[in-house]
């Protein structure tokens, strides 16, 4: 018996090794395919814009220059808009994730009398929208135009996120919540002291979704705050730069029938600015991600509780 | 609903008088659960204001809505907007395209993301695992304009795909991949996977982190091999998340997106690439027919609900996790 | 059970609030509509140069948001009038922005609506300018007087001041519009022949490609049209030009009968062009990627030296031509050629003097002080200020020679080409997007209004290669060897407003869709299947209501000729 199990384990280890090797090869291919666009953007952003028009730049710049970055950061508004984006991401994520988790907890409670009503009322909203104009009029009538709150309040609860957290709570080993309650903790205390720490992987996931959404958002700026430069976000400012470059490079369009000034030789082109803004906007997220990753470590939660 | 809550209440609260009416019972429980109520009702109010109040906009689907006119001045046109939608000869083709493209996205998206999450989970080197994971989700942050440009380059007549396929003898000469409607769905599906597979694994990786490691240890002692462990521990551990996500996404079956179709499509592939959103853009927004866009939105909502309810019912019947 | 009740309550609340929201949405614009028209009379005496700031919104992304007074030009205009502007430009989707602006009824003071004009006119966002101009606009009258009838709205009033009121006329020395372009090395190789017909054009490309099948180790590309989905009109418009018509937008208009004919599906205009492309494609001279490549890829081809000829509008690929010019390899640059079907056709690539009546600037119903605004505009239209917005200040941004001719010295030219300078000085904000002389205007001293149209400026910009080429063609400028445009008082027919959702508009959309589907197919599949595909295309096309469209266009063209725009 011991012999056969040894044989099997050796067989397993060979099979395992083949599997591991293939897996690593596959991952390396994946890395190549998914890293390419990013390296390509990086190379284009570091390349002379006029030279980049010729194409053929892959992962290394042909004519190295900082001009594109100088151009983007030459905008006085960029740093302030970065601050606003950061503030949105931090405040928006904390508030939204806390509220979403709290709601998720209530609807995870089997005995909660409003459970089904609340769940359905929220889920339905994922699949309809009154449309752009009614939404705009609502925000206007609530006096939320040109405010910071408009970045936080209308998107306070993400229904998708609520469902994700709920299913994590529901997946917690039975008895944990029960024992907390037997200890005499009220619902709110249970939520804070027991549920939140136990759902860290879900909260980390949801935080990432919310933070990325907040950091990248521009549509609400465009719609609600476009005339208040002090509340402009990074993505919106970058879009402005991009669109300005677009028009100054082809200073005429067919509709203009404008035969006046010719487009000059500019230091930047839309393509180079687009590449630069991709890098500028995504680097902070990429830096943050590894810090969240540690919350995804296998077995952390359950193991921790049991031990 | 009542059925559902009954046993719990009875165990915790002892004998609830059977003669109390339903409403009284409801109110009584409401009071008993006041903390839970306080923790959720404010959000219900929020929901009502921000999500349900704007629904008055749906009424505009029955109007020839002009945004500068007050509501009472709008011209009511009954179901005219829906007629424009449903009577257009291309509508059914567009509906087909929308269904097919989002189904491809759904199936491919699920299969690839789950597979990748499992494979990542099987990597032994934690550093390598983290690096791969971080890199794999990078394309998510590339805008569709850039992504489409990369795809067009890769598929161009001198692009890597044509060169590779010609070297392998699969094709005789360069193929105009983006010029053939039949290829469009496949190209779109692969592109979407490439762009979002890494990002989509995040949720599964998080779900895996809740699987009790002792289960793996036990299985190992029992002599289960890699695939058996994946099959009997990892996948079942992911099942609730998978089922819930599947139900939610089935509700989005008419949302195939519009940017990639718009950027990768052209006249030659329009029969395959035009979808509902492009239709609405062409006949609605560009011609400032807001009512048509609303009508299309309502149609989508109805279809969404049908899919959502069916999927949820099926999940319920099969005893799986469900959405509500 | 409880659910049902709650839902009922929710529903009734929702209905109540929706009614409220609906009312408040509409009321706003109504309120703002009334007082605006009274304003001129009441505030007559109040007009002064006391500082005031207005808002300006442009539905095109021409610049960054800025205070006008932060630019040199804006500052000077502020000194003259006391008026400053908060300049805002579109970021994001124009349709969305317009929809929201209209729904909320909150308009900026001055709006340049660009392609959103129909929506804004429909929403009654502008005030009529007639009385204001009558009372406060001597310069407006001088500049726009001859054109007044061309931009009256259907109610007979004027709402916007268009950009294109030409004062006198001077043509563009360069070809900035569409043409058949050919790489100069091809022309040089064969001793700068005077090409006239499409056959000659392709023949030269054929010969050159046979001689030089490869450039820098890669296959030579014969001919491309820049025609992915969003610039597909390039392949449509080329046929019009080949037949000797200017770009009237999908129709040709007979010079005698003034009858509008749709280009699509014509045996004499569209068919020979598509058929020819199908033939050269079979020969391997046509770039099949014409219909799928994006702008970056097309520009990479243009700058690679491998592409021998193409059809595109020059402004579509400014970065590529800039790159080639900067690289200073003349042979890789392209020359525009006035190619037609047969030698007896007079080419019409150069736009006739055009009056585009649906692009301009209007005062919104929310404007705080229309009189101050109209006075600002009137002041802007003084000749010295029109010189300021185009040329800038004498000896600073332009120079004047002993004959009174304006020119740019080297440094001035360099500043001109520098976007950052154009932004800080204000050219970027003021040379367009405001009431102005038309781009082809002449100043009273005989200089060109637009800097680019001044022959001295154009000539200074010519490279040695340009000069060689022009000499070989016996011309002084590029537009010189193109025919002069015929008089077309309706031009451009593409600015005719067909209305939203009308049968004409639906025809135009559906006909475009059909062409996008069939034309590439006919070109890329083997010539043997051409006739079958053409018949299939015509079968589909004949289902559309072409007659109504043509009748309307003909009627509108005739209206324009009669002075009714």
CATH architecture of the largest domain in chain B: Orthogonal Bundle
Return the string of H and E elements of chain B.
HHHEEHHHHHHHHHHHH
Report low-confidence residues of chain C grouped into runs of 5 or more. Answer: 1-46
Q: How much helix, percentage-wise, in residues of chain C?
A: 40-55%
Computed over alpha carbons, the radius of gyration of chain C is 26 Å
Helix content of chain B: 55-70%
Span between termini of chain B: 10 Å
Strands of the widest sheet of chain C, in order across it, are: 2-3-1-4-14-5
Report the principal-axis shape of chain C.
Answer: globular
CATH topology heading of the largest domain in chain C? D-Maltodextrin-Binding Protein, domain 2
CATH topology of the largest domain in chain B: MetI-like fold
How many DSSP helices of chain C? 22
Would you count the extended β strands of chain B for me? 2
**Widest sheet of chain B: strand order?**
1-2
- Under the CATH scheme, the architecture of the largest domain in chain C is 3-Layer(aba) Sandwich
From the helix content, strand content and strand pairing of chain C, which structural class follows? alpha+beta
> What best-fitting shape of chain B do the alpha-carbon axes yield?
flat
Biggest interface pair, counts: A-B, 99 and 93 residues
Residue ranges of chain B: pLDDT <50 for 5 or more in a row?
A: 1-16
Oligomer: heterotrimer
Pfam families (chain C): SBP_bac_8
InterPro entries (chain C): Bact_solute-bd_prot1 (IPR050490), SBP (IPR006059)
Signal peptide (chain C): 1-21
Organism (chain C): Paenibacillus soyae
Features of the shown structure:
A: 307 residues; mainly alpha; MetI-like fold; 2 domains; 14 helices; 68% helix; C: alpha+beta; D-Maltodextrin-Binding Protein, domain 2; 4-stranded mixed sheet; 22 helices; globular
Description:
Chain C: Keywords: Signal. Chain C: Pfam families: SBP_bac_8. Chain C: InterPro entries: Bact_solute-bd_prot1, SBP. Chain C: Residues 1-21 form the signal peptide. The complex is a heterotrimer of chains A (307), B (324) and C (565). Chain A has 14 helices and no strands. Chain A folds into two domains: 2-67, no CATH class; 75-306, MetI-like (MetI-like fold), CATH 1.10.3720.10. Chain A is mainly alpha-helical. In chain A, 68% of the residues lie in helices and 0% in strands. Chain A is flat. Residues 1-16 of chain B have low confidence and may be disordered. Chain B starts with a helix and ends in a 7-residue tail after the last helix. Chain B is an all-alpha fold. The radius of gyration of chain B is 26 Å and the shape is flat. A six-stranded mixed beta sheet of chain C has the order 2-3-1-4-14-5. In chain C, strands 9-12-6-13 form a four-stranded mixed beta sheet, sandwiched between helices. Chain C is globular, with a radius of gyration of 26 Å. Mean pLDDT of chain C is 88; it is low at 1-46. Chains in contact: A-B, A-C, B-C. The interface between B and C is large, with 46 and 56 residues.
């Amino acid at each position: 018996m011991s012999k056969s199990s040894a044989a099997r384990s050796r067989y397993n280890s060979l099979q395992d090794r083949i599997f591991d090797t293939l897996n690593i090869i596959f991952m390396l291919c994946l890395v190549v395919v998914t890293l390419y666009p990013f390296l390509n953007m990086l190379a284009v952003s570091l390349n002379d814009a006029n030279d980049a028009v010729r194409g053929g730049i892959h992962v290394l710049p042909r004519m190295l220059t900082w001009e594109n970055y100088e151009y983007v950061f030459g905008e006085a508004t960029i740093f302030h808009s970065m601050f606003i984006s950061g503030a949105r991401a931090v405040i928006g994520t904390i508030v939204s994730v806390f509220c979403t988790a709290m709601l998720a907890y209530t609807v995870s409670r089997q005995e909660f009398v409003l459970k089904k009503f609340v769940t359905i009322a929220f889920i339905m909203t994922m699949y309809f929208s009154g449309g752009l104009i009614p939404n705009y009029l609502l925000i206007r009538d609530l006096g939320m135009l040109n405010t910071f709150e408009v970045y936080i309040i209308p998107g306070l609860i993400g229904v998708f996120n609520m469902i994700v957290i709920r299913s994590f709570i529901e997946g917690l080993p039975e008895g944990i919540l029960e024992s907390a309650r037997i200890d005499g903790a009220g619902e709110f205390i249970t939520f804070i002291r027991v549920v939140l720490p136990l759902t860290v992987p879900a909260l980390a996931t949801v935080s990432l979704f919310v933070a990325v959404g907040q950091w990248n958002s521009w549509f609400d700026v465009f719609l609600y705050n476009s005339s208040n430069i002090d509340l402009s976000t990074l993505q919106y400012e970058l879009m402005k730069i991009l669109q300005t470059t677009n028009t100054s490079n082809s200073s005429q369009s067919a509709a203009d029938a404008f035969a006046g000034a010719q487009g000059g030789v500019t230091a930047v082109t839309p393509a180079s600015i687009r590449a630069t803004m991709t890098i500028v906007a995504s680097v902070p997220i990429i830096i943050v991600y590894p810090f969240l990753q540690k919350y995804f470590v296998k077995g952390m939660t359950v193991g921790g509780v049991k031990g | 609903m009542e059925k559902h809550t009954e046993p719990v209440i009875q165990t915790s609260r002892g004998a609830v008088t059977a003669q109390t009416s339903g409403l009284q019972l409801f109110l009584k429980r409401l009071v008993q659960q006041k903390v839970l109520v306080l923790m959720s009702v404010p959000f219900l109010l929020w929901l009502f204001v921000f999500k349900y109040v704007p629904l008055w906009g749906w009424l505009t689907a029955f109007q020839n809505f002009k945004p500068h006119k007050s509501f009472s001045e709008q011209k009511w046109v009954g179901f005219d907007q829906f007629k424009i939608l449903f009577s257009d000869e291309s509508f059914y083709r567009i509906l087909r395209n929308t269904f097919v493209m989002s189904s491809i996205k759904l199936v491919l998206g699920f299969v690839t993301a789950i597979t990748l999450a499992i494979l990542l989970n099987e990597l032994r080197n934690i550093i390598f695992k983290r690096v791969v994971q971080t890199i794999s989700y990078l394309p998510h942050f590339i805008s569709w304009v850039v992504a489409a440009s990369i795809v067009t380059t890769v598929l161009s007549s001198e692009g890597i795909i044509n060169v590779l396929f010609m070297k392998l003898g699969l094709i005789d000469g360069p193929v105009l991949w983006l010029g053939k409607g039949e290829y469009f769905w496949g190209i779109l599906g692969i592109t979407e996977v490439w762009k979002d597979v890494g990002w989509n694994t995040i949720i599964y990786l998080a779900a895996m982190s809740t699987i009790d490691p002792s289960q793996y240890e036990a299985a190992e002692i029992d002599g289960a091999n890699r695939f058996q462990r994946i099959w009997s521990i990892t996948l079942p551990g992911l099942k609730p998340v998978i089922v819930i996500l599947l139900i939610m996404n089935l509700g989005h079956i008419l949302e195939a997106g519009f940017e990639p179709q718009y950027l990768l499509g052209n006249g030659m592939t329009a029969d395959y690439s035009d979808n509902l959103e492009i239709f609405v853009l062409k006949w609605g927004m560009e011609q400032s027919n807001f009512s048509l866009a609303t009508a299309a939105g309502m149609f989508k909502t109805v279809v969404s609900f049908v899919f959502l309810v069916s999927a949820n019912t099926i999940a319920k019947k099969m005893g799986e996790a469900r959405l509500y | 059970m409880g659910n049902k009740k709650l839902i009922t309550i929710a529903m009734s609340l929702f209905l109540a609030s929706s009614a409220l929201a609906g009312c408040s949405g509409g009321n706003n614009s109504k309120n703002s509509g009334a007082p605006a028209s009274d304003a001129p009379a009441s505030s007559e005496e109040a007009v002064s140069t006391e500082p005031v700031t207005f808002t300006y919104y442009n539905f095109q992304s021409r610049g960054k948001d800025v205070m006008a007074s932060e630019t040199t030009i804006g500052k000077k205009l502020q000194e003259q009038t006391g008026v400053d502007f908060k300049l805002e430009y579109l970021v994001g989707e124009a349709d969305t922005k317009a929809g929201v602006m209209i729904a909320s009824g909150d308009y900026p003071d001055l709006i340049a609506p660009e392609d959103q004009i129909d929506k804004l006119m429909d929403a009654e966002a502008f005030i009529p300018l007639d009385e204001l101009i009558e009372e406060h606009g001597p310069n407006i009258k001088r500049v726009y007087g001859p054109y007044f009838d061309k931009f009256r709205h259907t109610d007979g009033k004027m709402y916007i001041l268009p950009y294109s009121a030409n004062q006198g006329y001077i043509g563009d020395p360069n070809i900035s519009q569409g043409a058949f372009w050919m790489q100069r090395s091809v022309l040089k190789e064969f001793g700068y022949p005077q090409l006239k017909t499409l056959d000659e054009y392709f023949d030269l490309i054929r010969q050159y490609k046979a001689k030089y099948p490869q450039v820098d180790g890669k296959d030579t590309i014969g001919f491309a049209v820049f025609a992915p989905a969003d610039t597909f009109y390039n392949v449509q418009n080329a046929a019009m030009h080949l037949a000797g018509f200017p770009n009237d937008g999908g129709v040709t208009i007979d010079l005698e009968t003034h009858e509008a004919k749709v280009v699509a599906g014509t045996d004499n205009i569209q068919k020979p062009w598509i058929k020819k492309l199908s033939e050269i494609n079979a020969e391997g001279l046509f770039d099949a990627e014409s219909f799928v490549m994006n702008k970056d890829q097309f520009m990479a081809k243009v700058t690679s030296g491998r592409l021998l000829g193409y059809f595109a509008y020059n402004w579509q690929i400014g970065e590529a031509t800039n790159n080639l010019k900067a690289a200073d390899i003349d042979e890789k640059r392209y020359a525009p050629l006035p190619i037609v079907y047969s030698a007896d056709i007079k080419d019409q690539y150069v736009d006739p003097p055009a009056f585009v009546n649906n692009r301009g600037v209007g005062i919104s119903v929310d404007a705080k002080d229309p009189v101050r605004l109209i006075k600002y505009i009137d002041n802007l239209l003084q000749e010295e200020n029109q010189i300021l917005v185009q040329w800038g200040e004498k000896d600073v941004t332009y120079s004047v020679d002993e004959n009174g001719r304006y020119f740019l010295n080297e440094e001035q030219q360099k500043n001109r080409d520098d976007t950052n300078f154009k932004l800080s000085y204000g050219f970027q904000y003021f040379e367009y997007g405001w009431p102005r002389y038309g781009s082809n205007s002449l100043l009273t001293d005989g200089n060109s209004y637009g800097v680019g149209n001044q022959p001295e400026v154009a000539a200074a910009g010519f490279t040695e290669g340009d000069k060689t080429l022009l000499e070989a063609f016996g011309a002084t400028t590029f537009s010189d060897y193109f025919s002069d445009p015929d008089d077309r008082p309706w031009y451009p027919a593409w600015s005719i407003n067909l209305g939203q959702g009308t049968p004409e508009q639906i025809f135009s959309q559906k006909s475009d869709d059909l062409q996008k589907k069939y034309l590439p197919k006919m070109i890329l599949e083997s010539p043997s299947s051409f006739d079958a595909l053409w018949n299939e295309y015509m079968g589909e096309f004949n289902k559309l209501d072409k007659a109504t469209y043509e009748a309307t266009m003909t009627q509108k063209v005739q209206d324009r000729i009669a002075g009714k725009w």
